[in-house]
Amino acid sequence: MKKEVGINQLKRRDFLKAGLVFGAGASGLAAGYAAVPDAFARAVYAAKREGVSNDNILVMIQLAGGNDGLRTLVPLADPALHDLRPRLAGPMVSQALPLNSQFGLNHNLAGIKSLWDKGKVAIVQGVGYPDPTFSHFESIRIWETGDPTRRQVDGWLGRTLATSYDSNGHPLTGCACGATGAPGALRDLQATLTVIQNQKTFGFTGGSEVEAAVGALYKGTPGIYGALFDTSIATATETMATLRTSASTYQPMADYSDNVKLVYSSKNQLAAALQLAAELIVTGTGVKLLHVTLGGFDTHYTELSRHDDLMGYLDSAVSAFYKDLAAHGMTDKVLIATWSEFGRRPKENASGGTDHGAAAPLLLIGDPVRSGLYGAEPSLTQLDGTGNLKYAVDFRSVYQEILSGHLGADAGSILGASFDRVPFLRAPVAV
Amino acid sequence: MPGALTNSSQLANARAGRQDFNKAVSVAPANEPLTNTRVATRGITRRQALAAAVVTGLGVGAIRLLGGSMQQIAGPRAAGTSGWVSPLASESARVMQLLRRTSLGYTPTQLETALSDGYNRTVDRLVETKPAEPPAFAAADTGGGRFPIAQLQQWWVDHMLTTPTPFAERMTLFLHGHFTTDYRKAADNTFVYWQNLTWRRMAMTDLRAMLMQVTVDPAMLRYLDLATSTGQNPNENYSRELMELFTMGAGNYTEADVRESAKALAGWQLPQPDSFVTNGNRRLPVYTAQKSGVFNPRRAYRGSVTYLGKSGPLDTQGVIDRILAQPATATHIADKVAQHFISARPAADLVNRLADTFRRSKYDIKTLMHAVLTSPEFTSDGGYRGLVKSPTEFMIGVARAVGSTSPSKLIASSGSGMGQTLFDPPDVNGWPNNESWISSNTVVERVNFVTAAIAQHQDGLRPAAGALHTHLDGVLSAQTKSLLDQAADDRARWFVTLASPEFQLK
């Protein structure tokens, strides 16, 4: 896949002109603004060639709200589970899809179970960080920045985008698929990034005349938001051109369906977002880091039906995505990883749900994965002072393995430290 | 640049005919020091501007606001810290910024009233006028609140477009993002309608009364699960967000406080319906009048709790009062209000001053908002165009600017691509603000909205000649100026004006 079209195809003349754009943005930078410009801003850095040396692709799936780890990877033989969750535990244990004598997947994860059977799924258990916060937004920020001390502003994937290049020397490009705003994980002033809610409607309804006028209007915009505005329009225009090309060559080879019956419907169209991700990957647009979100995991109440529905939705969307990539011969380069700001409280509450928790398992899916269970099962009887599961694996260990082992990026400089490896990759890139 | 030239010559005519006004009322208060910028930019007074408007008639309302900004269009002079050349030395510009930040755009009449009143009287009017009630929503007694949410969105948008008290709608929108609820989890659109009425009525009262109303609001009881919490086995959702998001902010309480106030708050339940209707095999509640949650002592916690440093029995009012006794509460709210109305990154000094005022007033919202709108930071040159309009402010502003007659359906359906669907915020933290509104997706959607709004009203468009003054203060980037120069007709001029980066800011 060497034919690169579109988003990160560097146009040096444009970049040189755009140096002015970045200059205007510098005041925003100085003022501490977390702007998210695009390829044009990268011109300043285009002379560098370091970081990534392969063309691997990462798709992060955010399970927003705090995914219940105990209902994702179910402990099958721990009597303590039934004491903690008299209402929730019975069905989840009896219906689980066993991986071994100790653990099973949620019964609605049948597609992911079949990928497990083919050796395509790794699960890291007990992932968390020291002194966990139970605030959604504090913990989301910690996971997004990779910094439990909360000093870092940029996202861990944003920093990767900003400092890494693919084998053609192009800056890595990111896409928030199915979103209207940039997720914190992708944020960095120098990240090359596009945000697309729906590729089928993404475009100027006024046609090429409007596109040209807006392109002229958003150049050299002053003020703290100037660079952000200008680069957003420039990226959008580039992306539209890319999508015009890719839409004509991409045919989905799987059934992506968001026609899902959810008890509390999700705002995010996960399947559509993953189909956009597949289109960008399959047609060789050069997008390397992709992020999608599925919300609704804050299951404080009637969790039984609610969480099962979400698991089923996740399963069908991920299964279609993998099948589509496989039909296009693209699975060898793509790693899919889930993340969530925290797990949930082992003890259920009066509403038939669970409150905010701590450690939880992460799923890693794809051909690059060495199948198996990693980390350590958190004890259900030795909880921490807040009644939550103690973590066994720092989430940054997972990040490090993804960054250095899959993307070949400089994990130490991106994460600011080195962490223990979690060897869930079949053939990690030597770094 | 035909539009500007026309204005310029009209202005010259107005000046020639009304020389006496030149020495009359200055735009700036007499005690206000005149900086170099101000002397350089002042070319016309407020009264003079109004007189000019009389001379030139409808469609050149811009003239009355010029405040010297004609020179500014000629090209940026010394750039301020914000990068835009601030016109805020002129009271007209300050009044227009005030309306942009508080009133969801404005019609020529609303602008004229504010300019005639001047800055301080306009602030007083905004803060002191009782919020106008929207018309009753006809489908409110639908069983289970099962009417399409789009109907309620259009109902609110219609009221935003026509209300005589737009500041109340701006505050209601702010509170909707702060005391967040989404219709999906509320699962009864009648509750969502009631909440909108409650937030508007309480918007300019005091925080102590507001927090009780928020706690017992039926949509909130559902959204943050207090309705199903019990003292014996509490649900922490409301307890945590009440402190983290609604009042004190993260880091100012412990996990033990979350657990303890979850006990103390338990016992509230949804109100009893007036009747039921059967829909298929489901019995749906019907309400004929607005109701609040009811307290059921049998579900409450019996016993003492240790909360925010004190032990003893505690009820809901006790929880609220203990939260109000924490210094962090006023600071957290002042910071959030400042981010929405003054600056994306309000200085600690400003936040502390506002918080002190808020605390001393016993958490009176009118006092807080008056302090916000009259703070020097609100009209500082460095803060000019320092905020990004939310999608709703932007869309209502477009509709009012061009004189759209029935845009509520378009507005209600266009917000989602820009990141803001009314009654459906992204999560419990409500909507993000300022730079978070800008992405490749949202900017394209904003442009598309302008295209649609103009197409919808091609025949009834207001003349655009004055728009660069009434809506952009005459402070333009070189690109915007160039495109306006090239614009062939009103349609094109409105497009450039409303799709410009300038118009996205406030």
Number of beta-strand segments of chain B: 6
Radius of gyration of chain A: 21 Å
Radius of gyration of chain B, taken over Cα atoms and rounded to an integer in Å:
25 Å
Overall pLDDT confidence of chain A: 86
Q: Main sheet of chain B? A: 2 strands, antiparallel
Envelope shape of chain A: globular
Amount of beta strand of chain B? under 5%
What class do helices, strands and sheet pairing of chain B give?
A: mainly alpha
Largest interface (C-beta under 8 Å): A-B, 70 and 70 residues
Structural class of chain A: alpha/beta
Q: Can you write the helix and strand succession of chain A as a string?
A: HHEEHHEEHEHHEEHHHEHEEEEEEHH
Poorly predicted ranges of chain B (pLDDT <50, ≥5 residues)? 1-82
Number of helices of chain A: 13
Uncertain spans of chain A, ≥5 residues at pLDDT below 50? 1-49
Number of DSSP helices of chain B? 27
Residue share in helix of chain B: 40-55%
Q: Provide the β-strand percentage band of chain A.
A: 15-25%
Strand line-up across the major sheet of chain B: 1-4
- End-to-end gap of chain A: 23 Å
Write the layout of secondary structure elements.
The complex is a heterodimer of chains A (431) and B (506).
Chain A: H1 12-30, H2 39-42, E1 57-63, E2 73-75, H3 80-84, H4 89-95, E3 97-98, E4 103-105, H5 110-117, E5 121-128, H6 136-145, H7 156-163, E6 173-177, E7 192-196, H8 207-217, H9 226-249, H10 270-282, E8 287-294, H11 303-327, E9 334-339, E10 344-348, E11 354-356, E12 360-365, E13 372-375, E14 393-394, H12 395-406, H13 411-415
Parallel strand pairs in A: 1-8, 1-9, 5-13, 5-14, 6-7, 6-8
Antiparallel strand pairs in A: 2-4, 3-4, 5-12, 9-12, 10-11
Chain B: H1 2-17, H2 19-22, H3 36-41, H4 46-56, H5 69-73, H6 91-102, H7 108-117, H8 119-128, H9 149-162, H10 166-178, H11 183-186, H12 189-202, H13 207-215, H14 218-223, H15 237-247, H16 255-265, E1 268-269, E2 275-279, E3 282-286, E4 294-295, E5 305-307, E6 310-312, H17 316-324, H18 327-341, H19 348-360, H20 365-373, H21 391-402, H22 408-414, H23 440-456, H24 467-470, H25 478-486, H26 490-499, H27 501-504
Helix pairs in contact in B: 1-4, 6-8, 8-20, 9-22, 13-17, 15-16, 18-19, 18-20, 19-20, 21-23, 23-26
